């Protein structure tokens, strides 16, 4: 029950947020929150650590940018195109990567994503190092998305949609099987589940949603660039999920918000001059792994559970 | 300092005398936003030095322009277009920044120009190099100050061909800036009767250049053109040195070499390199005087990018003094109407496409024995008049240029 | 794109250069494989430690007057000791957790180490002079091979094979192999396994630092020198199959050669060829060329 209240309060906050906070910054946060949720679907609920999710995020950003700028199709088509492309890439990468587990899985996804990155670097449609710039935002059902506020509510609606999709997936029978695979893969196999299929489906779903996030980002910031696809971006999304709490619904959202806000702060404050962002992010990584493995939300939940038990 | 202050007073008085019809400084302050590479590949040639140069410019104005305080914001764009665009948008919407300064890579410059186009803010570009900035992608309120790929091509390219380097082979960083540079140089080489034998594109950034150097060697070209920048250039030069490129009779043309690159390579490796630069600290008394102040502040001699930032800001501030306004199009109009003549720019003027045309220098890196003091690196071979160095307006693809 | 148009000397020259790169891959993947074998973690900080090796060598010259040859011995010891400190204070807390945490921890460490060096020294790199005795080049007929690069091949081969012999032929190596198979049993036999783990990690890190010193005169000593290299080395390790010592050496050298060849035939693909090979190997032999299916 309290969960529903929490979500409700959160939604109200998000609806009112642009009154107080710069909407473009909020939209960026939302995109990364969706990205982290997509990633968490894989890490938190299937136990697969992908170190190459930036490839999907980046590909979708490029495809969307290309569809909107060069083909001049409507915004919604661009978003769908980007998501679809990321899903297809997810299928290809997933087919290879799920052949191994654990650390191998992480390294394979990392290496494949690096390959995709090199491809982007050289392909014509990405604009190489310059990136794809001046992507038009267009309109949706007569709503002019050039206006920051309009776009904010558009993005918010899509992100909530994505979040609900992740929620439904996790709480469906399919999600239960995924958790079973995470906890004990051999047992899931012996129960007759075709584990690889489940993993692949989860991977494709996660890649598509990561793609949707990337597609939105290219509409919001009106550009797609190589940094979207760089392995640092893959590392960042891992950090967001870890910091917020992997395997929790709200964790990635909180983590993404924290990391994006922190990066923003370090990029412009005097602190950032002697304390560069990578060092801070690295330190957070180390602290999280050593002392804080459940993340913000995970720790809170544990605390809540403990205090309920006590009372 | 004194001069600047006096000029400031004069301008204020002038503005008052003229009745100061519309002395409008929005929000009671002139805000400049320095966006540069503070920690990445190009932080030595721009980065903290650019911030220092901007601080010097503000201090020299006495912290005020047209009676209103000057506020500087700075941020690291990490050479990423998205970070630059995000920051520029936020600065414009939230902080009410009036001008964006520096922008080290072409991608960040184009991204910020895109935003400035919608908001009519001033963009003073110093670090980015592509000639696209004032050619096909030109923008009414963007001014490209220090150099561009066309001027580099024209300076180094034609000089090398005239010295007998008729056949060329390129090592090109495989991204837009490198390709742009290669294209510009190729045009110059061919126009001067030279010939391009081939090119190899290397990934950006690349660490090992040995195999690319080998290909350049086996091409048999007289000149190996390095169409890259920063660490890529220094690594390529080191590899060339190791594989005996210069000893076996081929010449290296560093198409974009900054004094910070030469400093990090050291003269024994860098000696003999021909290059084009927009500024050299040891050119005359005016450059020395300013550079000495810069050196005292930062411990390094300025690169052309850093000196260019100071120069562009002073010109910008003076235009605000003169018009009493910080409205983008108004200030840019005034800037374009005023010639640029300071320690940095000789015979400088800003054209309608936004290109600040000024004299460029063809230089050669000294031999270790010729260097008398630290940072004594260049021998100026020739002054290239601005009109010769930059793309003639008649060939421009910029829509702002009215063709007669 | 015509293969026949490429003169033989050019191909030979590229193969030699590929062998040099392969030497670095071999040294780095060997260190990764040794660490992985016993600790079961992937050392993401390997690239940063390689960079650290180059930087410590540079400090040596700059501030302490330590020359190249001394650095070749002292730097791996110093950086290896630093690695052991990291293992004792940080990594050792994670052995009971999922191995992925080791990967994440070392990723964080890599970010910190690189970030600090970027902050202190910028990114354009510091020059490191080639030792006097190795300046100049050998004329091989088809190319000028700088003496220093020839030395890199020799030095890394010696170190790689030496490490392999230690692991395969000595008692210490036998313990190591036993620990890889079953560390609890080894502990029961009275071997101090935690100490062995620390030493092993230190040894792996020392190999990376050794590679860093070797690399210093070739590339600039720069904070970013290891960060992209490490991903290529990951791919090398996946191709070779982790845990196989000889496999990682052979794969490292072999892939260097393949990469060299790609640079002549289709230079743009030279960045991706190793990843493509990785994908193919995964399809055919998921455990890697020399790996055992577990």
TrEMBL record, chain A:
Highest rank taxon of the organism: Bacteria
Compartments, as annotated in UniProt: Cell inner membrane
One Pfam family from the record: BPD_transp_2
GO CC terms, sorted: plasma membrane
Membrane topology: Multi-pass membrane protein
Keyword Transferase: no
Alphabetical keyword list: Cell membrane, Membrane, Transmembrane, Transmembrane helix
Molecular functions per Gene Ontology: branched-chain amino acid transmembrane transporter activity
InterPro entries attached to this UniProt entry: ABC_transp_permease, LivM-like
Major localisation: membrane
Transmembrane segments: 6-25, 32-56, 76-96, 103-120, 151-170, 200-225, 237-261, 273-292
Name this polypeptide is given: Amino acid/amide ABC transporter membrane protein 2 (HAAT family)
Organism listed in the record: Plasticicumulans acidivorans
From TrEMBL, chain B:
Alphabetically ordered keywords of this record: Signal
Range of residues in the leader sequence: 1-23
CDD domains: PBP1_SBP-like (cd06327)
Keyword Signal part of the UniProt annotation: yes
Residue stretches making up the Leucine-binding protein domain: 30-366
Family named by the database record: Belongs to the leucine-binding protein family.
Name of the molecule in the record: Amino acid/amide ABC transporter substrate-binding protein (HAAT family)
Organism of provenance: Plasticicumulans acidivorans
TrEMBL record, chain C:
Gene Ontology CC terms: plasma membrane
Membrane-topology descriptor: Multi-pass membrane protein
Transmembrane portions of the chain: 6-28, 35-60, 66-87, 99-121, 148-167, 188-218, 230-258, 265-284
Pfam families noted in UniProt: BPD_transp_2
Protein known as: Amino acid/amide ABC transporter membrane protein 1 (HAAT family)
GO biological process: amino acid transport
Molecular functions per Gene Ontology: transmembrane transporter activity
Top-rank taxon: Bacteria
Localization annotation: Cell inner membrane
Signal peptide residues on this chain, from the entry's feature table: none
Keywords: Amino-acid transport, Cell membrane, Membrane, Transmembrane, Transmembrane helix, Transport
Gene source species: Plasticicumulans acidivorans
Record-stated family: Belongs to the binding-protein-dependent transport system permease family. LivHM subfamily.
């Amino acid at each position: 029950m309290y969960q529903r209240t929490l979500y409700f309060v959160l939604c109200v906050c998000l609806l009112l947020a642009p009154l107080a906070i710069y909407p473009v910054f909020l939209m960026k946060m939302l995109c990364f929150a969706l990205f982290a949720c997509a990633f968490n679907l894989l890490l938190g609920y299937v136990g697969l650590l992908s170190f190459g999710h930036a490839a999907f995020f980046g590909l979708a950003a490029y495809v969307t940018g290309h569809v909107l700028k060069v083909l001049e199709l409507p915004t919604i088509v661009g978003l769908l195109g980007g998501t679809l492309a990321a899903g297809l890439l997810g299928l290809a990468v997933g087919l290879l990567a799920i052949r191994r587990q654990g650390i191998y899985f992480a390294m394979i996804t990392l290496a494949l994503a690096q390959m995709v990155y090199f491809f982007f670097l050289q392909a014509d449609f990405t604009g190489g190092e310059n990136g794809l710039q001046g992507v038009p935002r267009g309109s949706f059902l007569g709503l002019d998305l050039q206006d920051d506020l309009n776009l904010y509510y558009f993005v918010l609606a899509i992100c909530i949609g994505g979040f609900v999709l992740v929620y439904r997936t996790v709480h469906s029978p399919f999600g239960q099987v995924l958790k079973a695979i995470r906890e004990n893969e051999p047992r899931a196999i012996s129960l007759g589940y075709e584990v690889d299929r489940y993993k692949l489906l989860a991977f494709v779903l996660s890649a598509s949603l990561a793609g949707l996030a990337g597609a939105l980002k290219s509409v919001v910031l009106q550009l797609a660039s190589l940094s979207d696809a760089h392995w640092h971006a893959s590392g960042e999304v891992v950090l967001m999920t870890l910091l917020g709490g992997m395997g929790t619904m709200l964790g990635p959202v909180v983590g993404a918000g924290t990391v994006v806000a922190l990066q923003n702060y370090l990029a412009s404050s005097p602190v950032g001059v002697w304390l560069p962002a990578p060092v801070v992010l690295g330190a957070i990584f180390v602290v999280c792994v050593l002392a804080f493995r459940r993340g913000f939300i995970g720790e809170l939940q544990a605390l809540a559970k403990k205090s309920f038990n006590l009372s | 300092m004194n001069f600047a202050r006096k000029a400031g007073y004069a301008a204020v008085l002038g503005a008052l005398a003229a009745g100061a019809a519309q002395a409008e400084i929005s929000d009671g302050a002139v805000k400049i936003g320095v966006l540069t590479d503070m920690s990445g590949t190009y932080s030595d040639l721009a980065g903290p030095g650019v911030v220092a140069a901007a601080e010097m410019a503000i201090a020299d104005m006495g912290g005020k322009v047209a009676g209103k305080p000057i506020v500087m914001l700075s941020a690291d764009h990490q050479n990423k277009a998205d970070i630059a665009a995000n920051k520029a948008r936020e600065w414009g919407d939230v902080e009410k920044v009036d001008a964006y300064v520096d922008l080290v890579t072409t991608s960040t410059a184009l991204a910020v120009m895109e935003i400035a186009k919608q908001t009519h803010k001033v963009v003073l570009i110093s670090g980015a190099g592509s000639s696209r900035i004032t050619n096909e992608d030109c923008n009414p309120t963007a001014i490209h100050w220090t150099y561009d790929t066309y001027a580099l091509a024209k300076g180094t390219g034609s000089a090398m061909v005239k010295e007998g380097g008729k056949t060329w082979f390129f090592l090109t960083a495989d991204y837009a800036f490198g390709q742009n540079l290669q294209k510009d140089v190729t045009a110059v080489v061919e126009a001067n009767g030279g010939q391009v034998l081939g090119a190899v594109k290397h990934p950006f950034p690349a660490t090992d250049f040995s195999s690319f150097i080998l290909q350049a060697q086996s091409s048999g070209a007289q000149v190996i053109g390095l169409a890259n920048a920063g660490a890529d250039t220094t690594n390529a030069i080191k590899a060339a040195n190791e594989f005996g490129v210069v000893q076996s009779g081929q010449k290296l043309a560093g198409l974009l070499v900054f004094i910070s690159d030469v400093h990090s390579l050291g003269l024994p490796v860098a000696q003999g390199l021909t290059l084009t630069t927009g500024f050299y600290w040891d050119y005359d008394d005016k450059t020395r005087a300013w550079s000495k102040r810069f050196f005292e502040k930062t411990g390094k001699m300025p690169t052309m990018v850093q000196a260019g930032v100071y120069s562009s800001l002073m010109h910008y501030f003076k235009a605000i003094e003169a018009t009493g306004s910080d409205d983008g199009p108004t200030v840019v109009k005034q800037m374009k109407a005023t010639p640029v003549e300071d320690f940095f720019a000789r015979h400088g003027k800003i054209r309608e496409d936004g290109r600040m045309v000024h004299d460029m220098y063809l230089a050669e890196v000294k031999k270790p024995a010729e260097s008398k003091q630290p940072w004594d690196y260049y021998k100026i071979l020739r002054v290239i008049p601005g009109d010769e160095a930059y793309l003639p307006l008649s060939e421009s693809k910029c829509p702002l240029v009215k063709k007669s | 794109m015509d293969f026949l148009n490429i003169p033989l000397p050019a191909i030979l020259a590229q193969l030699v250069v590929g062998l040099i790169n392969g030497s670095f891959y071999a040294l780095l993947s060997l260190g990764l494989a040794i660490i992985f074998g016993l600790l079961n973690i992937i050392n993401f900080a390997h690239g940063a430690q390689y960079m650290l090796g180059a930087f410590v060598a540079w400090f040596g010259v700059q501030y302490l007057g330590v020359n190249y040859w001394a650095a070749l011995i002292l730097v791996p010891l110093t950086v290896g000791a630093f690695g052991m400190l990291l293992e004792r204070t940080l990594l050792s807390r994670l052995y009971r957790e999922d191995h992925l945490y080791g990967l994440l921890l070392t990723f964080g460490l890599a970010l910190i180490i690189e970030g600090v060096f970027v902050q202190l020294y910028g990114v354009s790199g510091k020059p490191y002079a080639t030792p006097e005795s190795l300046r100049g080049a050998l004329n091989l007929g088809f190319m000028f091979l700088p003496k220093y690069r020839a030395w890199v091949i020799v030095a890394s081969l010696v170190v790689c094979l030496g490490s392999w012999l230690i692991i395969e032929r000595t008692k210490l190596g036998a313990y190591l192999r036993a620990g890889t198979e079953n560390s609890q049993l080894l502990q029961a036999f009275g071997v101090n396994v935690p100490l062995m783990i620390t030493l092993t990690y230190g040894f792996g890190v020392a190999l990376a630092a050794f590679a860093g010193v070797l690399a210093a005169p070739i590339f600039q000593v720069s904070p970013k020198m290891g960060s992209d290299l490490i991903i290529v080395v990951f791919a090398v390790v996946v191709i070779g199959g982790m845990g196989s010592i000889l496999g990682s050496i052979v794969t490292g050298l072999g892939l260097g050669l393949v990469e060299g060849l790609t640079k002549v035939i289709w230079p743009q693909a030279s960045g991706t060829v190793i990843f493509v090979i990785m994908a193919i190997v995964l399809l055919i032999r998921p455990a890697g060329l020399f790996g055992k299916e577990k």
